[in-house]
Prior knowledge:
The protein contains seven helices and seven strands. It is of the alpha/beta class. A seven-stranded mixed sheet has the order 3-2-1-4-5-7-6, with helices on one face.
Amino acid sequence: MELILKYFPNLTEDQINKFKLLETLYQDWNLKINVVSRKDIDELYLRHVLHSLGIAKVMQFKDGSKIMDVGTGGGFPGIPLAILYPECSFHLVDSIAKKLKVVNEVVEGLGLTNVKTTHTRVEEIDDTYDFIVSRAVAAMPTFVHWIKGKIAKEQRHDFKNGILYLKGGDLAEELKDYRTATIYNLTDYYTEDFFETKKVVHLPIKYKG
Ligand SMILES: C[S@@+](CC[C@H](N)C(=O)[O-])C[C@H]1O[C@@H](n2cnc3c(N)ncnc32)[C@H](O)[C@@H]1O
């Protein structure tokens, strides 16, 4: 938890309590339904919470923003972002029901009122969002295809509406067809070795009505 405060020192009491409670909730639920690997649960704050919040280091969501987390799995990056941005609404989507069971329990345990979850493939979602966030779900071309038509028209941020994807490694090949993509190295914000190869990719997506 100190790790979170090191990089996000202005959290409210309520946010601190929620971040603290995450560990207990994930430990309990992970025993029943394994959604986070054993190694990762021991380093929940580094590998999951801080990593998810990397998106918030790159850009800040304005109050009232609508965000979808595609392939949220156990709730990452959606849950940590929902704690950080209580005035934004988050839609967490996954095609595997048992993962969402854990997410729903965590959302309830935290008392988060700004999160909704849907058990479906993202292709079936019929709504629009300011931003679509994700981690470890699909290569960019597939992902872009899936989220077609799901980006809102109205621009409310300096960052253009689109995708904010947590990715790692060499992205040159994967992103070669996306000239408008910008890569942000998380090492610019975090000093822990874990972030050495970790990045946030921002890909603006044009609204197609
Ligand atoms: C490797 S896990 C990553 C989970 C989480 N984002 C994380 O980083 O911890 C990938 C997740 O994407 C989900 N997924 C894959 N394709 C999907 C699709 N088309 N629509 C919704 N969820 C999908 C899977 O069910 C799985 O839970």
